[in-house]
Design a protein that fits this description.
The chain is 39% helix and 11% strand. The chain has 12 helices and 7 strands. The strands form 2 sheets. The chain has a 5-stranded antiparallel beta sheet. A two-stranded antiparallel ribbon has the order 6-7. Helix 6 crosses helix 7.
């Protein structure tokens, strides 16, 4: 491979970028209200967003790797360095300062990782679906996670990025790449000669027909969106199939809900109260997002931690 490859299928329209999903609407509402506290989002699997004076300072979900995962699994810092910094700095809220002070990572690199974790967590929550959103007011001095981004990110910036990502994800779905895909490589490829191609090689290595994009993200120490983007690019190039043939012709079913393929924990039927929590969307008569395919600027590439679902090398 020569390092030149497509990582997008089309360009999003302006209308698609203005169309908010549930998470985007929720973020914009609480950001403009200068909310300080946390938003507990239930879904499949949901997550948590922390805000201070209307700015998002952290976000986490089981659907995508967090800062600790991105730092350790990527090899950016060692487990020993993390443990030393955590013991010294976490109780007093100075974990970031300890990591930088011990030269485990530079301040700029740490900020990139933490920013990426927020953008990816918000994307993952929207991707897997939202049921309810329960705000908990803590005030501007409320307890924060170990690695917040301060002073924070505007919700408008997060919403714009989320809209681009979801529009791109809709384009990938047209070729069969979704959150529930289990990609399978056609054949292995040689070790990459360029560092920029390493992730493609690693994704193909992990694409054995059993792992979902989330599984691969945790296994490789990359963000969920980055992995989805690479899978779509490799599928477009004919190097892998988004799912094994048997799953395309006979979708597997879940014991909890026989109408849905297995994935992260299933929603409980009839439990959705999102319309009572989030403001109605505008711009479309039926309130739904158009399935448009876009191309967005490259997002921050990072890496994560330990995944309980990670499988041994095939």
């Amino acid at each position: 491979m020569n390092g030149q490859y497509s990582n997008g299928l089309s360009t999003p329209s302006t209308a698609s970028l203005d169309d908010l999903g549930p998470v985007g609407a929720m973020l914009r509402e609480h950001g403009r209200a200068n909310f300080s506290g946390l938003l507990r989002i239930t879904g499949s699997p949901g997550g948590t967003v922390f805000l201070r004076d209307g700015l998002v300072v952290a976000a986490s979900t089981p659907a995508s790797p967090g800062p600790e995962s991105l730092l350790l699994r990527s090899g950016r810092i060692s487990e020993e360095a993390w443990n030393l910094a955590f013991t010294a700095g976490a109780p007093s809220g100075h974990l970031a300062a300890e990591l930088v002070g011990q030269s485990a990572i530079g301040s700029a690199g740490l900020e990139v990782v933490c920013l990426s974790a927020i953008f990816d967590a918000v994307y993952a929550m929207e991707l897997f679906g939202v049921e309810t959103c329960e705000p908990e007011t803590t005030g501007p001095n409320g307890l924060l996670p170990p690695l917040p981004v301060l002073p924070g990110i505007t919700t408008d910036r997060l919403v714009r990025d989320l809209s681009r990502r979801m529009a791109m994800t809709a384009a990938w779905a047209e070729i069969g790449v979704t959150a529930h895909s289990r990609p399978v490589a056609h054949h292995p490829i040689a070790e990459p000669q360029l560092q920029a191609e390493k992730i493609r090689h690693d994704v193909l290595t992990k694409s054995n027909g059993r792992r979902t994009p989330r599984d691969i993200a945790f296994a490789l120490g990359q963000g969920l969106y980055v992995i989805m983007q690479e899978i779509a690019s490799l599928a477009e190039a004919g190097l892998l199939e988004p799912s094994p043939p048997e799953l395309r012709t006979r979708p597997a079913v879940s014991a909890e809900d026989p109408t849905k393929p297995p994935s992260l924990p299933q929603r409980r039927r009839g439990s959705s109260k999102v319309n009572k929590v989030l403001p109605p969307q505008t711009g479309k008569p039926d309130g739904r997002r158009p399935l448009l395919g876009p191309r967005i600027p490259p997002d921050l590439a990072v890496r994560p931690d330990k995944n309980p679902d990670d499988e041994p090398e095939a």
